[in-house]
């Protein structure tokens, strides 16, 4: 097992980056892991090639990459999350009389894992197994707004990273960050017509034990209905809070600055 020490160092490096809210300089990584700088740069190069870390050249720092997001969300895409979340969504449908769904982040996409349909409501494109660009969906915006800004930058490094739907959705990081700031101020995300013409959605992120976005809970309603009112938003926020508690999240009195 000649490679075991290197593998252990690679895991330790990923765990270190996961514990920090912001990307770190290579020198700080080497110091905290008690590794030679040459070994640290070698590990970073290997992990970068596989997408687990990304180099933010302008900041001269290293952060988690897209592959780390994919690995981190693999657990919540599986049955445990579905078993935990399904009764929460079922109660949300009863409370709102609209279709509800649960999605997880997968790179720059959202992946739908549950759809609970309300009686006499139409089926939607957001069926189980469907992937859509996160930046055009309410669920995706809610989860992106719960990420540190550095991780959003890593996901959207250039304009080519953005995909519109129905000719709607952000086309630059500046526009996306503006939308995410509104989501944080409101406490929920909205979209209208960017997923399905004639329908709108409101969503809130459910957080895991580390405070990261484990999933997005959304309710979809006809776009010509009045804008989401207090009871509808309150129901979605309550469902997200309940799922967060079930996932081990313990809210703090003062949320960390992002």
Automatic annotation (TrEMBL):
Residues 4-66 form the HTH iclR-type domain. Keywords: DNA-binding, Transcription, Transcription regulation. SUPFAM superfamilies: GAF domain-like (SSF55781), Winged helix' DNA-binding domain (SSF46785). Pfam families: HTH_IclR, IclR_C. Signal peptide: none annotated. Residues 67-249 form the IclR-ED domain. Gene3D superfamilies: 3.30.450.40, Winged helix-like DNA-binding domain superfamily/Winged helix DNA-binding domain. It comes from the Bacteria. InterPro entries: GAF-like_dom_sf, HTH_MetabolicPath_Reg, Tscrpt_reg_IclR_C, Tscrpt_reg_IclR_N, WH-like_DNA-bd_sf, WH_DNA-bd_sf. This is IclR family transcriptional regulator.
